[in-house]
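Dear colleague,

Following up on Tuesday's group meeting, I ran the structure prediction for the two-component complex that the binding team flagged. I've pasted the input sequences exactly as they went in, so you can double-check that nothing got truncated or mislabelled along the way. The structure tokens for the whole assembly follow below. Feel free to forward this to whoever is handling the docking comparison.

Inputs:
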Amino acid sequence: MNVTERAAAAADESAWPLLPAERTWGAARLTLTLATTAAATWCYLIGESVGSYLGFMQGAMALTAGCFIGMLLVLMAAGPACVRFGIDSVAATKPQFGSRGWVVPAALQAVSIIGWNSLLIIFFAKSAVQLAVALGLLAPGTGGATLIPLLTLFACAVIFTALRRGATGVSMVSNILFVHVFVGMWMLYLIVTRRWPELIAARPALAASQHLWNYTTGVELGIGTTLSWWPYIGAMIRMVPNGRTAVLPVMLGMCLPVPLLSLIGLAGVLVLKTSDPSEWLRTVGGPTYAVVSLAFVTAANFGTTTAGIYASAVGLRNFQALQRRSWTTLLLLTIMPVACVGILIPELFFAKFGNFLALIGVAFAPLCGIQITDYFLLRRRRLDVRALYTQGAGQPYSFWGGVNPAALAALAAGCATYVLLLNPLNLRSSGWYPHLTASLPAAGSAALVYFMAGSLVKRAGRGGYRT
Amino acid sequence: MIFGGFPTPRRRPTRASRVNEEHPALPPELEARIEALESSASDQDFDALGWFWMVLFGIVLPAALIVLGW
């Protein structure tokens, strides 16, 4: 590795801006990485949720539409700053939340990514145990309690080793695991071709009496799913040289695999009453198909976790105390919580933490509304890259004590709007939810509050706004 | 030289050094990066084609799918 390559490698392990010459990924490489990141076990769970309220065709349409809407919001929110300056999602929030207030979105990112990665790594370990049983390497019902923590540790060690190479490690893992996306398509093809009449005739088990509510919930689940890509997207798209190169990989590579693979869960729950393909593939094609499916699940979660750990480690770099720490230290700080959860409390976490993650996910719609309003309306696409890295009184993004109260007020307003319209834990809704969804009004109300409060901040001469 | 190609901040008054009168000192590597980005000609987020794809996939396609699915 020559000096320039070493410099580029070091750059993608920092939260500092990447220079155009260092953003060496093309559209194909970004597409591959994003697709591998997006495809994971959660797709079945999303499909299962949609299949509880909608039939196959309607569910597919509503979910796909929602995914694309959510992806557009995320791209418009985090994308501009990330592709212009080669920074990650957390650094892109400094103009809105302030030179100290950015810790709020950073905390959201850390909890969301670490939480989801813990779930995925436990899924990975469970699938690997099931795979060993299916291959006859392990007797059914034996060794799981011991093997799951060991496999979690093994997965964390492999991810750590891969990510010692920074973003190159993410890309390398994606290159190896990308094939699993096609395996997912093959599974979808199987169930659709073999069970088509049943699939079309199947009725969702929990459908509400109001059809509009069911349909809106399908769209909402899609929007919420892709909004949760906000923490991941910046660390990936900053590796390409410009916005044009990022758009199609994000809209197709990151967004499209989610609804497509979710159809596996959607079809499974409608026809065979289970969204887990390793269960229904055994019914459809025998034990060989079940083995293929388990291998798919194992690979899928591994790829997503690798990208998540990378994005989270880059996000941590924004903390001044961690800027000078080695990349190895940051990786350990990010992986350790995941490993501890997987080793010490896998079952408890599996049972309880999903609810907490659902609540955390509520914040991403308002966050997008705030960023879009700030960048396009209040700042009119002007950002001060230097101010992203300076702190202290009088700095452009210091606002008041480093915190922009307008952003916090808007975030609170957006979250409140969401919860008032739809309880994310039990999907109980109220008011205009069937007509509006919950994410879009949450983003809209946060945008409105931010625009009004941000205009006052601008008038007060804070925040580095140009008048 | 830092990072095998980035010049260290020069002594002559640049925009960066003028701005530094108002901003606290940054690490030299970061300073060099920011200076390079500030002087970069490319300062665009998405171009017209990028917006076209975003509108197509983020608005037109979802609207069509929602109507078709309903």
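Chain B touches chain A at residues 2-6, 16, 19, 22-24, 26-27, 29-30, 33-34, 36-38, 40, 42-47, 49-50, 53-54, 57-59, 61-63, 65-66, 68-70 (CB under 8 Å).

Cheers,
M.
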